[in-house]
Write a structure and sequence with these properties.
- By secondary structure, this protein is an all-alpha fold.
- Helix content is 60%, strand content 0%.
- It is built from six helices and no strands.
- 25% of the residues are buried.
Length: 233
């Protein structure tokens, strides 16, 4: 009887062990790599940027500043066509005032001759009026005016200012008379060719002023061959 009970106990233990092995047979653990948890793949929903997109500087083209185009071509205005020569005259009259007016004002104080001082007073006053006219014309025609004398004009100013006495007077008259002679031919060309009524009227004003200045400078008796520009052929 006891032997039978022992066999039944052994059978029950064997069945229990067999059931346990059968339940566990369907599960096979997946091997885990040593690098688990270190993946560089993006995690969905966390906003991680793809790793193939560069975040550093790119080779985008550099935008260069655009320089103002020179006013050289003829363009239309309400007063008629504005040619290259028209624009050149406007700018050169402005340049003349930028250096001749301050030098005339300087000569009023520094000139050795009373006649040169008187002439300079008239030239300074007329240049002040002419400069107002040229700025008005330039504003209406949208012409950009220079704001400082040319390097050559600055050299003339330095040459005059560096002298004194009669040498100051002679140098002053020489350079002013030369400059007036140079622009005088341009005034005549523009007056004879311009189709712009505003420029035509301005060229007449400039012609009267420059012609008068030449006469005033020549009246000092200090003009020499160097005071006159080389004749054009």
């Amino acid at each position: 009887m006891r032997l039978l009970d022992s066999r039944r106990a052994l059978i029950s233990c064997g069945i229990a062990a067999l059931c346990t092995l059968t339940a566990c047979a369907g599960y096979t653990p997946t091997p885990v790599s040593d690098t688990a948890g270190l993946s560089t793949e993006p995690t969905a929903g966390l906003g991680t940027e793809p790793t193939d997109i560069e975040t550093g500087p790119t080779d985008a083209p550099t935008v260069q500043p655009v320089e103002d185009e020179p006013e050289t071509r003829t363009r239309q205005t309400k007063w008629g066509p504005l040619s290259e020569a028209d624009q050149e005259l406007i700018k050169k009259v402005r340049l003349a005032s930028l250096w001749e007016m301050p030098m005339a004002q300087d000569a009023i104080q520094r000139a050795n001759s009373a006649r040169v001082r008187q002439v300079s007073k008239e030239i300074a006053a007329q240049h002040d009026m002419l400069d107002g006219q040229v700025r008005d014309v330039a504003a209406k025609l949208k012409v950009k005016l220079p704001v400082k004398p040319t390097p050559q004009q600055q050299d003339w100013m330095t040459d005059i200012s560096g002298r004194s006495g009669s040498a100051y007077d002679k140098t002053y008259v020489k350079w002013l008379r030369l400059a007036h002679g140079q622009i005088f031919s341009l005034i005549g060309t523009v007056r004879g060719t311009t189709q712009n009524t505003l420029v035509r009227r301005f060229s007449e004003q400039a012609n009267a002023a420059v012609l008068n200045h030449q006469r005033l400078l020549e009246s000092t008796g200090l003009t020499t061959p160097e005071s006159f520009p080389t004749p054009s052929i």
